Fold:
Amino acid sequence: MARFFGSLLGCVLALSCVSSTYAADKLRMGMEGGHPPFNDTDASGQVVGFDADIGAALCAKMKVECEIVTADFENLIPALNDNQFDFLISSLSVTDERKQLVDFTDPYYINKLQFLAAESSDLDGTPGSWMGKTLGAQEGTLAANWLQEKAANVAIVQTFQTQDELYVALSTGQIDGALADKYTGYEWLRTDGGKGFELKGEPVEDGDRIAIATRLNDPLRTRLNVALKDILLDGTYKKINDKYFPFSIR
Structure:
C-alpha cells in the first residue's frame, strides 16, 4: 500500500512539473520562415505572417511566452522530434505518413493546390495540358507528392528546396508551370515577379487540412486545440485572416 501511494504521489508531482513547465517556460514555435504570406522572414530577420500571428494568439490564450525557431521545411518534423522546438505551426498538411511521426491539432485552415503559369499558357488542371511540359513544386510538400503521383508519366517534374526558388524558376522560364498552395500563389501574383502569370483552371486538390504538429502523446496538443477554439469564438482568428486575405481560408 505504501508503494502504491508513493507511486501515486510521484505521478502527481510529475504531472505538476509538466504543468508548471508549460506555464513558466518559453515555448518554441517551429516555422520555415520562407512561405509567404503564412511565414516569411523580413529585412530585420523577424519571422512574420499568418502562421506567426496565429501562433502568437494561441500562446496568448495559453498564457505562455513563445519564440519562433526556424528550420528548413524538410527538417521541421525531425527537428520537432529532436526537441528543437515544442510545436510546429508552419502550414503543415495533415497526411497519414506524418501522423505516424507527430500528432496534429484540429485544422486551423483548409488549403487548395492549384497550378500557376503564364497568362498565355494553355496549362491547367487537366492531364492533357501537362503533356511534355516541365512542372515544378517545393520538395517535401503535398504539391510535390501530387505531381510525382499524377503527372510524372506525362511531364517532367522538378522540385525546389524553397518556395522562392520555385517561383524564380517559373518567372524565368525554367519550368512551364508550378503547383503550389493556392493562397501562397495568390500572394506571389501580387508581386512584381508574378506579373504576367495567373492561377490556372480549378484547384486539383481541395480540402487539404493544415494543422499544428506536436510530438506524439504530448498534452500540449490538447491545450492548443482549446486555444484555437477560443480565438475562433472571440473573433481573433477572423481579424488575423482579414489582415492577410480578403476571403476566409477556413
User: Anything to note?
Assistant: Residues 26-110+209-244 form a domain with the D-Maltodextrin-Binding Protein; domain 2 fold (CATH 3.40.190.10). The two ends are 53 Å apart (CA to CA).
